[in-house]
Fold:
Amino acid sequence: MPDTPLAADDSGPYDPVMEMRVSRLEEVMRDVKSSIARLDATTARIEMTTVEIKAVLAATLPHLATKAELASGLGDQTSQMGQLTSRIADLTVALAEKPGKTYMLKSPARPICGASSRSG
Structure:
């Protein structure tokens, strides 16, 4: 950018203090421009990484269960566990009503499955 005079040519040279301030601002602007260039490069890398992450998630997430699906599965498992517990309780009651080993040992001997007694 070409220098544009701040005052008319007939007034003499620029104020030295103003010249130092402008020089300092130009230096700072060069730093700002280089910082912006670095930030642009970093932002581009972040955008590329974000795109890659989104692609991985899009490929992976459909195969994973959602929170609602897990809750539903847990509810189903809890229901089945309750049914099994109830069935076990029923079987325990039914087995309690059956004769035990001691009863079977004390009872008189009987023929097993159609065995006939022989006489004679």
